[in-house]
Amino acid sequence: MKHRIVVLGAGYAGAIAAGRLAKRLHRDDVEITLVNAESEFVERVRLHQLASGQDLPSRPLRDVFAGTGVELRPAWVTAVDTDRRTVELDGEHGAETLGYDTLVYALGSTAGSLGVPGVAEHAHGVAGKRDALRLRARLGELEPGGTVLIVGGGLTGIEAATEIAEARPDLKVALAARGGVGGWLSDKARRHLRTVFDRLGITVHEGADIARVEAHRVVTGEGQEIPAQLTVWTAGFAVHPIAAATTLEVSDTGRIVVDATMRSVSHPDVYAVGDAALAEGPGGRPLRMSCATASPMAWQAADSLAARLTGRKVPENSIGYAAQCISLGRRDAIFQKVTHEDEVTSKVVTGRAGARIKEFICAGAAWSISHPTMMMPSRRRRLTATTQPAAPRLATR
After folding, report:
1. Residue 185 CB burial class (10 angstroms; 0-12, 13-18, ≥19)
2. Cβ of 284: how many Cβ atoms within 10 Å?
3. Buried b (16+ CB within 10 A) or exposed e, 141-167
4. First-to-last CA distance in the chain?
5. d(CA 300, CA 213)
6. Closest by alpha carbon to 193, among 161, 169, 222?
7. Pair (46, 100) in one structural domain
8. Which residues form a coiled coil (predicted)?
9. Per residue in 50-88, pLDDT tens?
10. Which residue from 262, 265, 266 is spatially nearest to 276, judged by alpha carbons?
11. Contact by Cβ (8 Å): 180, 206
12. Contacts of residue 349, Cβ cutoff 8 Å, sequence gap at least 6
């Protein structure tokens, strides 16, 4: 019988892991099934562009994985049973139970409300394609002079605010953050960020702890009211609750705790990558939730799993950082160099040069997803006898 590998989620981490496994393992020995709710690969790092009115290239997953041996299963994941080694799906043919021998969990994250009243009812997000399209439609309804407030001073908030302000200069765009906006950046990068905000007419509210979101305004903990016909919520991420409902060891935020090979510390037949995983990074700090982390986590998980299945030495790689990229509209960006431990340095590239670097990185990531068979030589190795599946074979509707 073939060893069944099920990959949940086809974002950056899941798609890379599935493609890499297909390159590492012999098709006669494995079945690789990739489960994803969307039929296309979604460039999450460009969703602020989609929300502002730009159209993104279509990348159907069936085209991406054609000829790789990866079987696509369009479906929503509703539950995982790590004791029975099964996954519950809700797809085009209704409810389905899918069995696995090894699970790669890459369901990613969505916007987190932080428990603030009114976020679910009145705020829009950019964490998913559907969210971005709803925001796009709402932006299109605003008349000139309309007020837009982005809540959150991190990378997503900055990119959303600058993209919207550049695309709709007729709107009054503001950004509210609990702390400082871009406070982690170098002095040069912060100065450039302020210059761009001034050029685009973005009003910044720092130290604004949003306590409530209403239909046409937000209210801070100190009672300040900030007008907002449209509120865009980017203040943090939350993982899907599916993992926390299993017997997997998870963090207090629901992320699956993994070792250096991205394997669950409680279930050796489960790997987790991307935002859904909690892995120790340089200096003992958790790797941050980002595309920059998702890709190397996927490489590590796929290579480690392939090595274990084929009886080879498990690679020992340290995941670290090199830079942080922030787009500031289509013609400007910040390329901030960082240390391996993710500490900023004085080296930074801004303006059009920064935008070209940012675009090159984003385009390169999308290209690698769209061409999974071209990223490295094929070395499809046979599985060892000790890695044959032991779980019951389930695939029922």
Report:
1. buried
2. 7
3. ebeeebbbbbbbbbbbbbbbbbbbbbb
4. 21
5. 41
6. 161
7. yes
8. none
9. 999 999 999 999 999 999 999 999 999 999 999 999 999
10. 262
11. yes
12. 334, 335, 357
pLDDT tens-digit readout, 196-221? 999 999 999 999 999 999 999 999 99
Q: Are residues 86 and 123 in the same domain?
A: no
pLDDT in tens, 219-246: 999 999 999 999 999 997 889 999 999 9
What is the C-alpha separation between 129 and 333, in angstroms, rounded? 23
The answer to whether 233 and 111 have CB atoms below 8 angstroms apart is: yes
Contact 164, 139 (CB under 8 A): yes
User: Are the CB atoms for 126 and 234 separated by under 8 Å?
Assistant: yes
Residues listed for the chain: 397
Q: Which residue has the tokens 């061409």?
A: 371
| Same domain for 169 and 117 | yes
* Residue type at 305 in one-letter notation: L
Distance CA 289, CA 56 (A): 23
Which residues, listed in sequence order, are joined to residue 159 by a DSSP beta bridge?
none
Token pair of 130 as six digits:
């559907």
Give yes or no for a contact between 397 and 11, defined as CB atoms under 8 angstroms apart: no
- Of the residues 182, 204, 233, the one at which a domain ends: 233
Q: Tell the burial category of 343 from Cβ atoms under 10 Å away from its Cβ (0-12, 13-18, 19+).
A: exposed
The burial of 58, by beta-carbon neighbours within 10 Å (0-12 exposed, 13-18 middle, 19 or more buried), is given as: exposed
- What is the residue range of 276's domain? 3-108+240-319+383-396
Assigned token pair, 303: 């290579």
